[in-house]
Every structure is written in structure tokens, then in C-alpha cells.
Design goal:
By secondary structure, this protein is mostly helical. It contains five helices and two strands. The structure holds heme C.
Length: 147
Amino acid sequence: MTINKKLLGVAGTGMLTLMLSSQLLAHGDVTPQAVDTAGLAPLGEEWLEANPYGTDHPDHERAVEIGASAYNQNCARCHGLEGISGGIAPDLRMLEVGIEGDEWFQYRVINGAVRDGRVYMPKMADYLSQEALWAIRAWLETQHVEQ
Ligand code: HEC
């Protein structure tokens, strides 16, 4: 009996968290917009360590173009329009250029930022393709400013 109650309790808490997070979703904090990545070389399932659409990639320009609008649709509400943070979330123009910045970018978009069950940043890679996310990274690098 006690065990059953405990189990019910755990299940209940799980349900609550689920309800709360879907409510967050419903409020538009996280309503990812599909990104059309047509024209970009497909990257497969496995996550790459570094941005493939760098300046020497044939699809670089297309990636920057797609990335700019994908950013504004999916990241700007927290990170600021055009990458200019209003202070809610870090200013992504200041991410390091090159592989260091790529690694941190990749880590964050895959893992999001979740502390004590609170979602500060959703796991964007659950909603957007690797192509779309690297395109955003390619655009961000064109906006880079030193800290
Ligand atoms: C719901 C708000 C929200 C959305 C939407 C969001 N982020 Fe974030 N992001 C945050 C917050 C808050 C942090 C800071 C997390 C921390 O330091 O704990 C963060 C951190 C980051 C970082 C690390 C920055 C640094 O300087 O450490 C990267 C990279 C990042 N986000 C990329 C993105 C990208 C790309 C998107 C869109 C595809 C996105 N985020 C969408 C809220 C958001």
C-alpha cells in the first residue's frame, strides 16, 4: 500500500512537470518554427563537432541566409532580435569564433539549459535539425563582436 502510494506520488509529480512544461510550450515561449534547409548539404544523424558550413563550404552563403531567419524565428525571443541580447539570455554575437565556439554552441543546443527542473533554454536540437542549427551558427559568426 505504502509503495503504491509512493509510486502514485512519483507518477503524479511526473505528470505535473509534464503539464507545466506543456503549458510553457503553449504560451509560446517555445514554439519552434520549422526551418526549410533545402539547398544545404545534408549532414546525417550524427552530430558534427564543428560547423560544416564555414566560409570555405560551398553552401556557406545559403547557410547564412537560412540561419538569419531561423535565428529570428527560434532564438530571438530570448537571445534578442539580430542577435543583440536584451539581457534575458547571453548575447550570442560574443560566442568565440571557430571550433571553441562551435563546441559550446553544439553543447547548448543539444542540452539546453535546465536547472532544478526549470527550463531556461529548451533543448533546441529536439526541435530543429542539425542543418538548421549549424546554419544559425554560420549566421551568428557573421555577426560576431568581441566581448
Ligand atoms: C526560452 C529562451 C531561450 C531560447 C528560445 C533559446 N535560448 Fe539559448 N539560452 C537561453 C538562456 C537563458 C541561456 C543561458 C543559460 C545558462 O547560462 O544557464 C542560453 C544560452 C545559450 C548558449 C550559450 C551562450 C553562452 O554565452 O554561454 C547558446 C550557444 C545558445 N543559448 C544558443 C541558442 C540558439 C541557437 C537558440 C535557437 C535555436 C536558442 N539558444 C534559443 C535561453 C534561450
